[in-house]
Design goal:
By secondary structure, the chain is an alpha/beta fold. Helix content is about 45%, strand content about 15%. It is globular and about 80 Å long.
Length: about 400
């Protein structure tokens, strides 16, 4: 096991806040002296089926704890997910059934173990202890929190001031997440900055149960592809860790230049000194290196090389992709305008989108730009349509 100073230096990379840092040092010193690993908790509510790079930031940090010899305790919030985390919400989150949550959890865990070491991960479902709580238990837990303090949360205070409903069951969420820390006797709890209130509540509840309080280990929220909001599936500004290599590479190339440093630090293993050198060079080359590093992490170096080569061929050298999906064209569609044809072939969502893309010069047939959405194009088998920067279709005329 590394020295305390070496562990702290490793763990602090990219971290937003450690509460309190002096207690973390004490816990690590005791761990080194006794040889007993710390129990590092991460709770997840599988409300969707896929994991994106934003959530992977916390998972990657948890893997660092594992590599330093500590125990990762992964809490699958099958019971808390049926309450719904109110964090950052402007309205009550829809409640999921236990069956929906557990179905999502199956996909979650498969993707999680692309990052975590399964042999050094303790996986627990919080229904294991939350379903056993009695009314007396709930009353004791609830007595540790005041309404005034609950309303200090930004999301609750905003809803209260704007007279938006706050359901009583939403107040239970941070308390149940806190009880998870009691149940597994966590030394450290990982989470994003938006989980600070919930994790600090865990410290308070552990004290109430006579336990040593956990350390809050908070990671920044990764800004998504739009360059404005945190990465989220609900915002559509995410990259899933299971997405195909070429798609992942292409999406990384879309991020604003000013995000590259944050993404390098939080999403790759490139040293900070090397990041500085990379960012001092040409922005396009820096971004390709970033995309290559991210694809390599989740798909391997060979796939990263292929994705990079494909991007350079298609988007820098304006050549065709090596693989183009085939789209069949029925004979009766041949008399349609190009805008109607794109809709009929499901290459765009609507005629308005087709018009917009054509007016912007973003639709090509065999490399020739189409300028009039009313035009009837004589398409033939083998023709290549390009829609926008990344969508291609090889046409096959039936009959």
């Amino acid at each position: 096991m590394l020295s305390v100073d070496e562990q702290i230096r490793t763990l602090k990379r990219g971290v937003a806040e450690i509460v309190p840092e002096d207690e973390l040092r004490q816990k690590l010193e005791r761990s080194v002296q006794t040889g007993k690993p710390l129990r590092v908790k991460l709770g997840i509510d599988p409300t969707a089926s896929d994991i994106h790079l934003g959530f992977a930031v916390v998972l990657r940090k948890l893997r660092q704890w594992q590599d330093l010899g500590h125990t990762a305790v992964l809490i699958i919030g099958d019971r808390t997910a049926t309450i719904g985390d109110p964090t950052g919400r402007s309205e009550t989150r829809p409640q999921l059934s236990l069956e929906e949550v557990r179905r999502n959890a199956e996909t979650y865990t498969e993707q999680i173990f692309r990052i975590l070491d399964p042999n050094r991960t303790e996986v627990r479902y919080n229904s294991e202890w939350l379903d056993k709580l009695t009314l007396s238990d709930l009353v004791f837990i609830a007595s540790q929190m005041t309404v005034a303090r609950m309303l200090e949360r930004e999301d609750f205070s905003q809803r209260f001031e704007s007279e938006q409903p706050i359901a009583l069951h939403e107040f239970l969420y941070p308390l149940m997440q806190a009880y998870d820390s009691v149940a597994i006797q966590a030394d450290v709890e990982m989470g994003g900055l938006d989980q600070k209130f919930n994790i600090l509540t865990g410290r308070d509840l552990q004290r109430a149960y006579g336990q040593e309080p956990q350390i809050a280990f908070l990671m920044p929220l990764l800004i998504g592809l739009d360059g404005v909001r945190k990465m989220s599936k609900s915002f559509g500004n995410y990259i899933g860790i299971a997405e195909p290599p070429k798609e992942m590479f292409g999406k990384v190339m879309r991020i604003p230049d000013e995000l590259m440093r944050q993404w390098f630090i939080l999403c790759t293993d490139v040293s900070e000194s090397e990041v500085d050198e990379i960012l001092a060079g040409h922005p396009m080359e820096a971004k390709k290196r970033l995309a290559w590093e991210i694809v390599k992490l989740y798909h391997g170096e060979e796939e990263a090389n292929k994705a990079k080569a494909e991007f350079e061929r298609v988007f820098q050298q304006r050549e065709l992709p090596t693989e183009i999906p085939t789209v069949e064209v029925e004979p009766e569609l041949l008399q349609m305008t190009i805008a109607d044809l794109l809709v009929a072939l499901e290459l765009v969502a609507s005629k308005n989108e087709a018009k917009r893309l054509i007016n912007e010069g973003a639709v090509e047939l065999n490399g020739k730009r189409i300028s009039d959405w009313r035009e009837v194009i004589a398409v033939r088998t083998g023709d290549i349509l390009r829609i926008g920067k990344r969508k291609f279709a090889k046409l096959v005329v039936r009959g």
